[in-house]
Each structure stands twice: as structure tokens, then as C-alpha cells.
């Protein structure tokens, strides 16, 4: 599936930051300002027809990134350029038109659909809001087409159903149809399959891949499940405490990862094969609080390869170590050449 | 006497609902030796949790066990102890909730790791106090001895001792889960029933906790039933494996046999639907349709309506359990023909 990065850039993200101020309301004037640095300066491009998998542990800022891209949150600084325009500066009609072009698919299909809306109403609502389609019949036609695209056939049978009359997989397909009916320019999918059962999950993932093939719509696919990210994406970006620590083509990141955090993360993924020998890369402690970030590299207190005087002093920049593969680690080149296996323990 | 720690025979748990029954678990058989781990996998609603909880009889009010169900633990039939024949429904037994004999088994001999450790602790007591309560419920120890035991347990699961007197909200998710494991080990049980012990956790934490569980298990020679939907966790943790579908145990054997010598179409479909970070990227196969309504299960094989290999007989007759090789069983009419044809996770 290579070659997607050659396409036109749809979304350009540059030094995007989102800090949440903890001193709000009556605490506004109490002492030093206190921030949660949810997203702290990330940059990447999303190309036409490309799927980028955004992975990381809870609290790493992957969902906030998704919300910034859809402008559900305003960034603290940095830009998201969509077709060359900064989305933070859009307002009125332009913002409405942006909201048509970017759609979101949420995690929980039980919460994201209005329980009092039928399927037809759910999917027709965005058409009415954005004034698409001339007549009622034309819109119904579009709704049926979207349902069929989402694999709900025969579509007529689903039109008058309510969410409670459908299974989780069917609901998520309705949510996908609702996003696709507007023919968006890109989609942010936030853990869209993590609530679904295994057998149904595969179907929804295949559906999303097929729709990408058909309409060349790029996705930002946010997930904590690395095996799912590998299946879905062309490129993977690994986030840790608000930063992208490694980004590159999917199998490059899965098999030739360089950053110690990526190494630890991927070594922790269970493999559905009883013969698989499990090598564990030990990392110490837990994710620090995003309020009191460690100085220097954010990962150094947990990193088995950290060196005093370097890692705890200077923040490593995101460097290109091979074409299209970027890593934020002081020792990236060194790790590229020699596999630091001595700290890997066979269990 | 056989050397099995746990023998579950013909276990059927049905839930009474307003007009009829939900046949949640139907005729489940398996055995477990000391120190052995069995992965019990399946999708939501397949009855895996009900099966696990039926061992300690922690079931909802409307659960009834078929009279011929047997759960023999260390030579004693727990069903005989903890249930009595239902007056209302013939052929069923009802659980005697506060049976003191049964309670002496729970936690002391058979403990549990619950799914949402986040919510399994009482927020208004410290974690240490809650573990203490569980210990004192079963053993007569002094304050100091209990404290020592808890310190040792925290050491085992890797939580600093100064966190014993913290409240659950002061713990992270992974720590709560580890405290839960500490609590389940507090009385050195013979069997742990772990219900999705790491499902809500991040991979790094999950990996660490699974490592901890198997290490402790080996050291204390505890048997475990690992209930999960994630076949890759079973591949890592368990030597034995049982696959459930719609209340039936459809395939049983060693994890290796099930992954590499799959003998049931549902197992094949389940494994094929699972993405992996190993090997080549292949298109996943989804299973068409959805699981049956267990209040009204299909007449023949419960998987037949979704099975790509189904023939007429599958819709008519419930399949027998076929022994493919010693200990490797499949509940399929065509198990022998399909054996070797089906491809597992490879």
C-alpha cells in the first residue's frame, strides 16, 4: 500500500500544541499557571488516500490531536492547514464548510448515535444541515447509498430502525455511513473498533479500508491497539506524552523501530501464536503526569538506555534516519546500527 | 481419585426471564490440573464469564443450574454444597446465596480477579484495609501478621509498601489491577478465576501484569481459568484452551493444538479475524451475521447459520463432541473431515 505519501497533502499539521489550563474559574488567580500539556508540538502531513495510525498509551494526547484536527478544540499554538488554510482562523460559513469536509467516527457506537433518531434521520441530518440535496427523495437516495456503502444491505430495511434495534457492529456502520454521506475530505476515527467484538471488528475494519480504496478519503486512525493500527494504516505515528516520538511507514515502525519507547511498546503486544517467543523490553515505572513533565527527553526516566547529562538535559528533535522514518531520540543513529539487545530479556 | 483439581461436567446455567429461559451455558465439560492455566475464549455473550463464575456460584438471582451439572473441586462437588433443588422449576437447582460452606471456599480456595479492577475496590476504604478484611474473613491472624502478609503480597506484585494505606483513587489503573491480583493471592488459593484481567489496560501495563501473574502462578503452583476475548493473551499465557460459542464449548485442547491444528470452523473464523503484528499483513476475515439469541437458540449446531462449511445436518442435529486426538475435542459434525483443512492463526 505504499505510494500514498506521494499524493496531494490534504492536512498539514505544524508544531501543534494544546495546553489545558488547570487554574480556571475560582482558581484562576492562585499562583503559577498550571498546564496539562496534552499535545506539545507535533507536525505531520496527511496525504490524499492515506491512513495514518496514531498510537500510544492512554493520556499520550492521541485523542486530543484528533479533536484539534476536527476543531472540537482550539489549539494553544501551531497550525492545522487544510487545503492551505489555517483552520483555527475559520469562522462562520467557512467553518461550517470545514465541518462538512472533516468527519469524525467515535469509539462508542452506543453513545454516539441519538437513541431517538431513526437510522434515516441520523444520516439525513447532516445533509439537511449542510444543504445537500434538493428534495427529500434525493436525500433518501443518498442515505440509502451511504448505508449500502457501509455494508448495511438491503438499506431500506434499516431506514426506520432505532439504535437499540441494532447490534454494536451495525451501529458503528451507521456512524460510518453518517460520516461518509457528506463525502468528507478526511476522517478522524477515534478508536472506532475497540468496543466491537472480534468477529465484527474485522468486518468494520475491512469496510473502512474498502471505503478508502473507493473514495480515496484519508483517515487519521487513533487506536491503542498496535495490531489494529498495523492492519489499518500506511504510516504509524507513535505518541508519548504529547509528542510524536517515531513516525514512519507501518512495517518500518513495526519491524525496524528505533525509539526505545516504540521498542518497549511493540515488545509488549501479545501475539496470537503460542510458539512466539516473547522478548520483553523492560521499562521502568509508569507514565509521569503530563503536568510535571521531565526535563529533556520525556521518556528518559523510564528509558533503559538513558544517559545522564544528555537525555535529561536536552529534548531530542524529530530526525529523519531513513527516508520517511523519523525518530526523536538522541541515540537514534546508534540504535539504528546496532540492535541494543542486551537489555531485552527472554521470558 | 483423579488428579484433577477441577472437573466441570455437564455444566448448564440458564437464566430465567419473563417468558422463557436464556440458555447461557449448555453442557460444558472441562478439567484443570494443579498449576495449569486454561484460556476460556469467546465473544461477548458466549457464556465464558457465566461459566467461570458458576465455578464459585457467583451468579445473578435468576440463574439456575441444571440438576446434572457437576463442579468437582478437589474431590468435592460444589454444586451439591451450594445449591438446592428448585421447587419452582423441575430439573433445576438454585444457588443458596449465603451458604456458609460455599463461602469458606470462595477466596480461600478459589479466588477471582475481576474484570474492572477500577471499580472492584470500595472507594471509602484503603486498599490495605480491604485486603485485610478478606484475610481476616478466613483466617485468625493478629494485626501484625496480617500487615506482614500484605507487605509480602505488595512486594510480590511490585507495589511499594508505603502505598498500602492509600485509597483506591490514589492508584493508577495498572496499580489497582496489581492490587487486585495481590488480593486474589492473599489466602494462597488453589485456583484463580481471572475475568479479563487486563482488558482495560494499556499494552505496556498489560504485558507487565500478565508477566507478573504467570510468574506468581508458577511459584505458588496456582491453577487459573483465564477468561478473555483476546486470543493473543491466551497464546501467551495458557497451555490449555477452550473456545466457547453461544453457550457451547466448541473446541478444547492445548493452546498449540487450537492455534495450529484447528478443528472447529468457529475457531478458524475467530483466529482469522485477529490482526497480528507478526508475519505478513493479510486481509482479515469477518464472520458474517451475528451470534444467535440464546433465549431462542438454533436447533442444530449453534454456529451453523454463520458457518461456511455448514450442511443440512448441521441445521437439524446438535453435533456430538468428537475427539480428534487425545484431549483435543471439537463439537462439529465434520470435525474429522475439516481437521487439517482448516487454517488457524498462521
Explained architecture:
The complex is a heterodimer of chains A (347) and B (346). In chain A, the strands form 3 sheets. In chain A, strands 6-7-8-3-9-10-13-12 form an 8-stranded mixed β-sheet, with helices on both faces. In chain A, strands 2-1-4-5 form a 4-stranded antiparallel β-sheet, with helices on one face. The longest helix of chain A has 18 residues. In chain A, helix 3 crosses helix 4 and helix 6 packs parallel to helix 7. Chain A starts with 8 loop residues before the first strand and ends with a strand. With 347 residues, chain A is α/β, with parallel strands linked by helices. Chain A folds into 2 domains: 252 residues, P-loop containing nucleotide triphosphate hydrolases (Rossmann fold, 3-Layer(aba) Sandwich); 74 residues, no CATH class. Helix content of chain A is 30%, strand content 23%. Chain B has a domain of 95 residues. Helices cover 32% and strands 25% of the residues of chain B. Chain B is built from 13 helices and 15 strands. In chain B, the strands form 2 sheets. Chain B has an 8-stranded mixed β-sheet, with helices on both faces. In chain B, strands 1, 2, 4, 5, 6, 7 and 8 form a 7-stranded antiparallel β-sheet that branches. In chain B, a hairpin with a 2-residue loop joins strand 14 and strand 15. In chain B, helix 6 packs across helix 7 and helix 7 runs parallel beside helix 8. Chain B is globular and about 65 Å long. The two termini of chain B are 40 Å apart. The mean pLDDT of chain B is 91. Chains A and B meet through helix 7, helix 8 and helix 10 of A and helix 8, helix 9, helix 10 and helix 11 of B.
Amino acid at each position: 500500500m505504499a505510494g500514498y505519501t506521494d499524493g496531494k497533502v490534504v492536512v498539514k499539521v505544524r508544531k501543534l500544541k494544546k495546553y489545558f489550563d488547570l487554574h480556571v474559574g475560582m482558581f484562576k488567580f492562585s499562583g503559577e499557571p498550571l498546564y496539562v500539556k496534552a499535545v506539545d508540538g507535533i507536525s505531520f502531513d496527511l496525504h490524499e488516500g492515506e491512513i495514518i495510525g496514531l498510537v500510544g498509551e492512554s493520556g499520550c494526547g492521541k485523542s486530543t490531536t484528533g479533536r484539534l484536527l476536527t476543531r472540537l478544540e482550539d489549539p494553544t499554538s501551531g497550525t492545522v492547514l487544510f487545503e492551505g488554510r489555517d483552520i483555527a482562523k475559520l469562522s462562520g460559513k467557512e467553518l461550517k464548510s470545514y465541518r462538512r469536509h472533516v468527519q469524525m467516527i467515535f469509539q462508542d457506537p452506543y453513545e454516539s448515535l441519538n437513541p431517538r433518531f431513526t437510522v434515516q434521520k441520523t444520516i439525513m441530518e447532516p445533509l439537511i444541515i449542510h444543504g445537500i440535496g434538493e428534495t427529500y427523495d434525493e436525500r433518501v437516495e443518498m442515505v440509502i447509498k451511504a448505508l449500502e456503502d457501509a455494508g448495511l444491505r438491503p438499506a431500506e430495511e434499516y431506514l426506520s430502525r432505532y439504535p437499540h434495534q441494532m447490534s454494536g457492529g451495525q451501529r458503528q456502520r451507521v456512524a460510518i455511513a453518517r460520516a461518509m454521506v457528506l463525502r468528507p475530505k478526511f476522517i478522524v476515527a477515534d478508536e472506532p473498533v475497540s468496543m466491537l467484538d472480534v468477529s465484527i471488528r474485522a468486518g468494520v475494519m475491512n469496510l473502512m479500508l474498502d471505503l478508502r480504496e473507493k473514495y480515496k478519503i484519508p483517515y487519521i486512525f487513533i487506536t491503542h491497539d498496535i495490531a489494529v493500527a498495523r492492519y489499518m494504516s500506511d504510516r504509524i505515528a507513535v505518541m508519548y506524552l504529547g509528542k510524536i516520538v517515531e513516525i514512519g511507514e507501518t512495517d518500518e515502525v513495526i519491524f525496524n523501530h528505533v525509539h526505545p519507547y516504540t521498542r518497549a511498546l511493540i515488545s509488549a503486544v501479545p501475539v496470537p501464536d503460542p510458539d512466539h517467543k516473547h522478548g520483553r523490553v523492560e521499562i521502568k515505572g509508569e507514565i509521569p503526569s503530563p503536568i510535571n513533565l521531565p526535563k529533556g527527553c520525556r521518556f528518559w526516566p523510564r528509558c533503559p538506555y538513558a544517559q545522564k547529562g544528555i537525555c535529561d538535559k536536552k529534548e531530542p528533535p524529530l530526525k529523519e534516519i531513513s527516508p520517511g522514518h523519523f525518530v526523536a531520540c538522541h541515540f537514534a543513529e546508534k540504535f539504528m546500527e546496532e540492535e541494543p539487545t542486551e537489555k531485552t530479556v527472554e521470558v | 481419585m483423579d488428579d484433577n483439581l477441577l472437573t466441570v461436567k455437564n455444566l448448564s446455567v440458564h437464566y430465567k426471564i419473563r417468558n422463557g429461559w436464556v440458555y447461557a451455558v449448555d453442557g460444558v465439560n472441562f478439567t484443570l490440573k494443579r498449576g495449569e492455566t486454561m484460556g476460556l475464549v469467546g465473544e461477548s455473550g458466549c457464556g465464558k464469564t457465566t461459566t467461570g463464575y458458576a465455578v464459585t456460584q457467583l451468579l445473578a438471582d435468576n440463574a439456575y443450574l441444571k440438576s446434572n451439572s457437576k463442579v468437582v473441586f478437589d474431590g468435592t462437588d460444589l454444586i451439591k454444597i451450594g445449591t438446592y433443588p428448585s421447587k419452582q422449576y423441575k430439573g433445576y437447582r438454585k444457588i443458596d446465596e449465603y451458604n456458609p460452606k460455599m463461602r469458606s471456599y470462595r477466596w480461600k480456595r478459589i479466588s477471582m480477579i475481576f474484570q474492572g479492577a477500577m471499580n472492584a475496590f470500595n472507594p471509602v476504604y484503603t486498599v490495605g484495609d480491604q485486603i485485610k478484611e478478606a484475610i481476616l474473613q478466613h483466617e485468625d491472624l493478629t494485626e501484625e501478621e496480617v500487615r506482614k502478609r500484605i507487605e509480602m503480597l505488595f512486594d510480590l506484585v511490585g507495589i511499594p509498601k508505603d502505598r498500602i494505606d492509600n485509597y483506591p483513587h490514589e492508584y493508577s489503573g495498572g496499580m489497582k489491577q496489581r492490587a487486585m491480583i495481590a488480593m486474589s493471592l492473599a489466602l494462597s488459593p488453589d485456583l484463580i478465576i481471572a475475568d479479563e484481567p487486563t482488558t482495560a489496560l494499556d499494552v505496556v501495563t498489560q504485558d507487565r501484569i500478565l508477566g507478573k501473574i504467570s510468574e506468581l502462578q508458577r511459584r505458588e503452583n496456582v491453577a487459573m481459568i483465564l477468561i478473555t476475548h483476546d486470543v493473543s493473551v491466551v497464546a501467551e499465557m495458557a497451555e490449555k484452551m477452550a473456545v466457547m460459542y453461544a453457550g457451547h464449548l466448541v473446541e478444547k485442547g492445548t493452546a498449540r493444538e487450537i492455534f495450529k491444528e484447528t478443528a472447529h470452523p468457529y475457531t478458524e473464523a475467530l483466529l482469522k479475524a485477529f490482526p497480528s503484528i507478526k508475519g505478513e499483513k493479510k486481509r482479515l476475515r469477518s464472520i458474517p451475521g451475528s451470534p444467535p439469541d440464546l433465549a431462542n437458540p438454533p436447533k442444530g449446531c449453534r454456529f451453523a447459520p454463520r458457518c461456511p462449511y455448514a450442511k443440512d445436518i448441521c441445521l437439524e442435529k446438535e453435533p456430538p463432541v468428537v475427539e480428534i486426538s487425545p484431549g483435543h475435542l471439537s463439537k462439529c459434525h465434520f470435525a474429522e473431515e475439516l481437521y487439517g483443512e482448516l487454517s488457524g492463526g498462521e
